Amino acid sequence: MMRNWWKWICLLLLMYVIIVALVVPLVPGSESVNITSLHPGLQRVEITGYNTHFVQEEENLQCYVSIGKTLVKGQNLSVISETQAAFDLILPDTIPDKNVGFYANTDFDGTIYLSTAMRMEGFILEPNTPWKGDVITVKNEEQQFFGFPFQPNLFETIRNLMFHVPMWFTMFFLMTISFVMSIQAMNQKPEKDLKAAAAAEIGLWFCALGLITGSVWARFTWGAWWNKDPQLNGAMVVFIVYATYFILRKSVQDEIKRARLSAVFNIFAFILMILLLMVMPRMVDTSLHPGKSGNPAFSKYDLDSSLRMVFYPAVIAWGMLGYWMYRWQTKVNQYKNEENEG
Amino acid sequence: MDFKSRHVLWSVVLFALACIYSLYLVNPDLQDTQMFISFGVLSALFSGFHTMQKDQQRLSKGQLIYWYTLVAPRTFILAKMTYNAFFVVLLNLIQCILIIFYFGTQWFHPSSYAELILAILAGSSAMGIGLTMASSIAQRTQQPTTILAILGFALLLPTLFAFVTILSGVLIGHTHYLAWPMIIIMNIIPFLLSSILFPYLWRD
């Protein structure tokens, strides 16, 4: 029991990460606004919220529209459902800015702010949709409950941060173990080769899981399972190279020879992986992937304590799980090896 | 692969000629630059593999042991890499000339000839060096030919990406500054790694 304390910690952390990552709701936000024009100058604006509590907070709800520096308050506010409300908007005589922002304020949900919710096309107000128009930035301040940030385009897929990213970290961790073991196997210690193979095998599983979670995520945010992207191509090449490593191992019978050959290949594969996944995508300016070519990633979320509370334990938990599986696989490899010899 | 077995040498050149001539037979009016780039790289890859496989079949175990008594394994592998790099470069230049001979030069408007030739040199030598490394690993296994195809493909993928990017940069005009460092790295790494690692590998 005491010897395996870290396994219990790993299990507890994993349970915490999976439950929290899947159960915690997103903070209230708003996806889009819709406009029906009554007559020039007077518009009816419908807002569609997400996880909002408009019925509950009907008395406190206030809607504003910002044009340049002037704020215009919505009139005749009517709440349709928890996530839908509508108000009349009387535009001012002078319109200083083309971009029209939107605020909705309640005590419970805080302030929802869409910086470019609408735009002026001539004298007509047009809604911006997140998919076609400019990217709408949503800020939510002073909300009353714990939740993950609401990001347009990401929505609920922000939870993937707790699965996809730590899986790649774990893969890097395991491949580094495999690399070190391979170097030791070259230096007159062929028995370390089994450890290198075990680490690479578990690492390959995490690589596959990372590819799958990333692909599913990409389907819902970019609209395609796969994209021509340096990060994605690099990941695929790394997967192929490490898969080749196992084909190479299977094709050599002699143990010492296999140790040397696969160690040589593994060292090369590790250097390729560093080049393809760490160096190349960072230098390219056409990547869609978060964290690359100026896309938002951790630096932005670092400000958000709710994500950090789950993300850091997730990294530790998946890493520990990978290490646990690696030790297990090492034992399996050793038993198989003894069986072959005996 | 050396000049003692000249029929093997000519078989590889014939392979390249047959590749390009069959493309010409299929579509004599082809003028698509992108198509030529992908086809050229592909046929370079196949003739590279072809060379390596012929090389493997030719060198028996006795011959290898004879070589190792003459020179150190490190010298042997480095010499072999250099030789294969030169050979693949020569092969690819022949292929370029053949493509221009059959299809004319209407599609051929490189932004700079120096860069094009440098690209062919760097890309082909990276191919030759990478394939030599894959081949010398594969030679120690039970099915060298199959393993060479699998290993070589995996090891050459980054090189191919970079090579195609540079070629389309020169010929079509979407130059990417990253491809050059990548292809130079892919030249250097197998060279360095095999000079460090191969003394371990040949110890039996």
Secondary structure elements and pairings:
The complex is a heterodimer of chains A (342) and B (204).
Chain A: H1 5-23, E1 29-39, E2 42-50, E3 62-67, E4 70-73, E5 75-81, E6 84-90, E7 99-106, E8 110-121, E9 124-127, E10 138-141, H2 164-186, H3 192-221, H4 230-250, H5 255-283, H6 298-301, H7 305-341
Antiparallel strand pairs in A: 1-2, 2-6, 3-4, 3-7, 5-6, 7-8, 8-9, 8-10
Helix pairs in contact in A: 1-7, 2-3, 2-5, 2-7, 3-4, 3-5, 3-7, 4-5
Chain B: H1 6-26, H2 33-58, H3 61-70, H4 73-103, H5 113-138, H6 144-171, H7 179-201
Q: Can you tag this structure with a few keywords?
A:
heterodimer; A: 342 residues; alpha+beta; Immunoglobulin-like; 2 domains; 6-stranded antiparallel beta sheet; 4-stranded antiparallel beta sheet; 7 helices; 48% helix; elongated; B: 204 residues; mainly alpha; globular
Structural commentary:
By secondary structure, chain A is of the alpha+beta class. Chain A is built from 7 helices and 10 strands. Helices cover 48% and strands 21% of the residues of chain A. In chain A, the strands form 2 sheets. In chain A, strands 3, 4, 7, 8, 9 and 10 form a 6-stranded antiparallel β-sheet that branches. Chain A has helices spanning 5-23, 164-186, 192-221, 230-250, 255-283, 298-301, 305-341; strands at 29-39, 42-50, 62-67, 70-73, 75-81, 84-90, 99-106, 110-121, 124-127, 138-141. Residues 131-135 of chain A have low confidence and may be disordered. The two termini of chain A are 33 Å apart. Chain B is 81% helix and 0% strand. Chain B contains 7 helices and no strands. The two termini of chain B are 23 Å apart. The mean pLDDT of chain B is 82. Classes of the chains: A alpha+beta (342), B mainly alpha (204). The interface between A and B is medium-sized, with 28 and 29 residues.
